[in-house]
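Hi V.,

You were right to ask for the full record rather than a summary. Here it is.
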Amino acid sequence: MEEDGIQDKLAVLIDADNAQPSIIEGLMDEIAIYGVASVKRIYGDWTSPNLVSWKESLLEHSIQPIQQFAYTTGKNATDSSLTIDAMDLLYTEKLVSCHTSIVG
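Predicted structure:
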């Protein structure tokens, strides 16, 4: 929300393993209602062919891909990495008012 002409700065963190590229347009439109997405990151194992469909959306919306290798099956390292970054941003990044995590 805007207060005294200053928009909130938001962090958007996406779990690419569990979200689809088709959500990006609506997501970014919704976020714009509440402020400016000053941090946009997406987490996943980018060596996986399952995430190829994200490539165009990342470029179009300036979303930074974060590599998280799937070293162990059945364990979701992506969720852990996203959560750690979210906490780090909330406690150390003075430019971010709040964050939005998109996880499945």
